[in-house]
Design goal:
The structure is a homotrimer. With about 130 residues, chain A is α/β, with parallel strands linked by helices. Helix content of chain A is about 30%, strand content about 30%. The longest helix of chain A has 19 residues. The two termini of chain A are about 15 Å apart.
């Protein structure tokens, strides 16, 4: 159910991009109970100048290796679950992909359960 | 007012992509009363490996022909309207574009009416 | 904290795209108090036919110079702040980038404060 968009600057291989997707997905599975097979992601690499990031906002030093992760998911996660998710994404991308934790930017967008269809035109998660 | 993002793998022609956009728009018009001229869409085709989907989640068999449809729209649609929208998107993409219904993934993101400007810097739908 | 996606048709230079990003950011800073260094944007240029817009919806005449601006930001802005933001985006893109105000399409997506991490896996804005 999560729909994950990962945006980076060009320079990573397709395999490295796939590893970013793997890492974000593992964080979702480990921290907020997303099923392992519930994986839908768009991985996009942008030319120089087309992914804009501040190199220092909140005194966090970012580099062109920055990874923007936008996750659309169903409502219902607690503050603690969200904190755990943020932490796991940064930790796993560092451990598995060599991403600096400072370079991991995350945004969650929450929607109602009936706002998903996984195929066949049915809202499988609707109440 | 809906802003529709359609993401697929490379392989469809621009005409086939346009037909996907046509089909999603027709579903919006027919099921939730979107005006025919209220159409804004971004159609993106991604290289292999950059659109990730589970081939079997919820026992729905997906292929590389998968179509991810993310629709941002105003709050206020009922559960029944959303169900009708999901069904119509899958039905129309199958009938008009030859997309397998299993390959149609849909996500709705809802926002307030004042969160739109259709031009001139005015929030035309604000209360 | 805002995550801004700007989508246009191909034809603008990277410098012109950057100026669009500059303009949207300045509008955010001037109208809703976004810190100047809080800037994260994805600027995408699409081939002909892959950014679809109605040329006349609501009697606003749009051209292929249309600029779709989708801004994900935290909840909490008033109707008046949103109106000011819409107006400023159109005004600044016209003044600084020569964009016709009719060609500026804006959508805001609002999320909870804990739905952001600016690095290091921490939800810096969580309550």
């Amino acid at each position: 159910m999560p729909l994950v968009r990962i945006d980076v600057l060009e320079g990573r291989t397709t395999g490295e991009l796939a590893a970013l997707g793997d890492g974000v997905h593992r964080a979702l599975v480990e921290t907020i109970g997303i099923p392992a097979a519930d994986r839908f992601q768009v991985l996009a690499a942008h030319p120089a100048g087309r992914l804009v990031f501040d190199p220092n906002y909140l005194d966090i030093v970012r580099t062109p290796g920055v990874v923007l992760v936008q996750i659309t998911l169903s409502l219902g996660r607690s503050l603690e679950q969200k904190r755990a998710l943020h932490a796991a994404v940064a930790r796993i991308l560092a451990a598995d992909c060599g991403v600096r934790p400072e370079d991991v930017f995350i945004n969650l967008v929450e929607v109602a359960k009936e706002n998903w269809s996984f195929g066949n035109g049915i809202a499988q998660y609707a109440p």
